[in-house]
Amino acid sequence: MLFEVIKEEIKDLIRKVLPYCNLSENDIDFEVSESPLKEYGDFSCNLAFLLSKIQKKNPYEIAKNIVNDILPKYEIINKNKSLIESVSIERPGFINFRINLKGFLKMFFLKIMEVTMMPTIGTPEDLILIEHTSVNPNKALHVGHIRNAVIGDSLYRLFSSTRHNVKVLNYVDDSGLQIADIIVAFRYANIPIEEEKRNSESKKFDHYCGNYVYVKINELYSTRQDLEIERKSVLKELENPYSQISLFTHQIVNRILIDQLQTCWNIKCHYDILNFESQIIQSNLWESIFKILKEKQIIQFETTGRNAGCWIFKSQKEGDKVLVRSDSTITYFAKDIPYAMWKLGCIENPFEFEIFSQQWDNTNLYQTKMKREKEQSSSFNNLINFDKIKKVITIIDFRQERLQSLLLEILNKLGIENTKYRYLGYEPVTLSNKTAELLGVNRENKKSTQMSGRKGIFIEADTALNLLINKAYDEVIKRNPDISEKEAKFIAKEISISAIRYYFIKQDMGKIITFDINDSLSLEGDTGPYIQYSYARGMRIIDKMDYKIDSLSGIELSDLDLDLLNNEIELITHLCKFSTIIKESAYNYEPKLIAKYLFKLSTLFNNFYESSPILKEVGNKKTIRIRILYSSLLIMNHCMEIIGITPLNKM
RNA sequence: GGGCCCAUAGUUCAGUUUGGAUAGAAUGGCUGCCUGCGGAGCAGUUGGUCGAGGGUUCAAAUCCCUCUGGGCCCGCCA
Predict the structure, then answer these.
(1) Measured between alpha carbons, how far is A385 from A383 in angstroms, rounded to an integer?
(2) Is A90 contained in some domain?
(3) For the segment A605-619, what is each residue's pLDDT rounded down to a tens digit?
(4) Within A 216-275, residues with CB less than 7 Å from strand B
(5) In total, how many domains does chain A have?
(6) A575 and A511, same structural domain?
(7) Which of A65, A70, A79, A466 has the lowest CB atom count within 10 Å?
(8) Which residue is nearest to nucleotide B74 (CA to C1')?
(9) Among candidate residues A457, A482, A515, the one where a domain is terminated
């Protein structure tokens, strides 16, 4: 906040210079940025470089002219009121500004409440829908799914804490091929529903289905053609919600889904609504949209060629895409169209909302159900106000990017304003060679290995989390020999959640993450636990303080008191960027910016901790340091909340 | 064949959207620092022709072109 104020002041000053160069504000798009080195002052402006293009003169000469002639001649800097202390020029033509340090620090301590406050960006009126996780309900989540969930959940936290109204959706494909495979396994391949020998530690049904049943049935398909035929019939029967198969499938899906959600809840992900694909099919939304697509001639019936007998969409860029097969069943892609339109609120909502279960944060998780007669209808129907939807964000693997752009193309042709619809793609998580070898995969000359549920090549999310918990538990016991087991377990779990969430959030979404079961699960360095540790150290000081200060209300200080150490100034400067970072992160949908900011903050805080003792300090110096301490912890707390890291007082 | 993404220190990555000054972290290696508010830490040191070549520019890791290497997508699978 403060940071922006200073930047604005410098920009204002530059704007006043412009007329003397025969330019107006609209002619030129100059920039004021932080100087990379202290010797160059605090802020730099690139105006002279831009002018040199227009005036065809040396940028250094132009800068010299501005700083030495124009600024003093017209008394543009008001020394008494300004935070700008001095202006200098540097080759090859930078105009550098040094701010008045004492003035800046005074302002910080005066406005400390504003600096540490979470900025408000949205209004509760703006409804944002975020869809994430959406894992097929036939297996346990693997580490790749965690990336999706953590990105989505952090965005949910980011938008919620900046005062938006956010609802989180989780799409459950309970009528597709993957669940059909599990059903075939149980019904036609004599694979028992209950695991007979519990030789694995896990008792979770999703692990059994993903690790054994799904892999086994895929092996069987290659030798038993009868099973392939059964799969087709299962798929067909799933379209009828009252068939025996559908009812059975419903039970199996629910068991797996609950186990999957348990994993997500374990790492503190929040959801609001489960959207079952079977419900979308039942709603007959597709039929009405199909009709419109035909009427508007957005799709065509193919009579010749390899797609003969299908309804297809001819995309400008992406070629032909089948929506309705020649046997009149609809494709996965086609099902996405009504769902997207429902999310955007441009079709009448056929669903009501029913409680599915409670979740870890004591909120209700709802599921969509077909609307019943009025007198029976659920009381949760205003869960989503479809008129207020401002943004629909879908977090997906980059591999589905093509389908998403096809979807946007169709929405566009339907005349739907598709700027509200935003898909956020991320590159997948692969396994390092060492980790792949542990799973019995041998691929030489490869940098990493793609995970595959079908082939059984994956690291389960629960496995990774449990490994971390054990590792953290050992560390907690080592450091706190007298701790109760219950507390140690609690702390170990919080540490591992922070480690795993931070690990998946800090990296750029456009980069493949190569997961290594040993190297990726670190508790030191640029990690979540490091951040928690810094926070815990800070909290320790507050515990030991002989008196408590009750607020962060601003204080006025004399120049003498503001003789701070470099470490302290650096920390304060960083604190002042807080709201700027939050805004940037929300604007660009980039939670990683907050992770980066938070890590730097922790590092600066640790420096402060090492170099600026508080408890043994006295007088104003102590007051100042306590305020730095409090504001640091407060901002750390805000950022941790967004990443989903629990602040700990002890670890 | 068409399209998208990636390549920066031994390793894992920031920085590329919006060109800017001496390319930053973490980790590993080496060296220090606990009678001090917690050593999951701090300080120091080691380590880089920014995949290659060309172009634009006062200025290129960043923009443009070509090439190389790696990954993904292009199903009547989901």
Answers:
(1) 7
(2) yes
(3) 999 999 999 998 888
(4) none
(5) 3
(6) no
(7) A79
(8) A318
(9) A515
A612 Cβ contacts chain B strand, under 7 Å: yes
A632 and A543 within one domain = yes
User: Mean pLDDT throughout A151-174?
Assistant: 96
Q: Is the CB of A61 under 7 A from strand B?
A: no
Say whether the CB atom of A326 is under 7 angstroms from strand B: yes
**Quick one: A535 and A615 in the same domain?**
yes
Q: What is the mean pLDDT of residues A556-569?
A: 87
The DSSP bridge pattern shows strands A389-397 and A127-131 to be: parallel
Let me know: does A369 contact A352? Beta carbons within 8 Å.
yes
Distance A599 CA to B46 C1' (A): 24
In this structure, is the CB of residue A434 within 7 Å of any atom belonging to strand B? no
**A382 or A406, higher pLDDT:** A406
Does A538 lie in the same domain as A510? no
Q: What is the DSSP letter of A647?
A: P
Helices and strands (DSSP H and E) totals, chain A? 24, 17
Q: Which residue has the higher pLDDT, A418 or A404?
A: A404
Nearest residue by alpha-carbon distance to C1' of B70? A447
**Residue A195's pLDDT is what?**
76
- DSSP label at A24? -
Question: Which residues fall within 8 angstroms of residue A65, CB to CB, at 6 or more apart?
Answer: none
Q: What six digits make up the tokens of A250?
A: 């419903």
Answer yes or no: do A534 and A638 share one domain.
yes
Evaluate if residue A286 carries a pLDDT over 80: yes
Cβ A96 to strand B below 7 Å: yes
Question: Structural domain of residue A494, as residue ranges?
Answer: 433-515
A560 and A475 in a common domain: no
Q: Residue A24 maps to which CATH number?
A: 3.30.1360.70
A88 C-beta less than 7 Å away from strand B: no
Mean pLDDT, chain A, integer:
91
Task: Single out the residue in A454, A486, A515 at which a domain terminates.
Answer: A515
* Residues 155-174 on chain A lying near strand B, CB distance under 7 A: 173
Note whether residue A39 is domain-resident.
yes
* ipTM of the modeled complex: 0.96
Half-sphere exposure of A101 (CA within 13 A, CB side): 15
Q: Among all strands, which nt has the closest C1' to A511 (CA)? A: B6
Tens digits of residue pLDDT in A317-332: 888 999 999 988 889 8
How is the beta sheet containing A448-450 ordered, strand by strand?
A448-450, A429-432, A513-515
Predicted confidence band at A546 (pLDDT cuts at 50, 70, 90)? Answer: confident
Q: Which of residues 508-537 of A touch strand B (CB under 7 A)?
A: 508, 510-514, 519, 522-526, 529-530, 533, 536-537
- Shared-domain flag, residues A24 and A48: yes
- Using pLDDT thresholds of 50, 70 and 90, give the confidence band for residue A25: confident
- pLDDT class for A374, splitting at 50, 70, 90? low
Cα-to-chain-centroid distance, residue A384 = 22
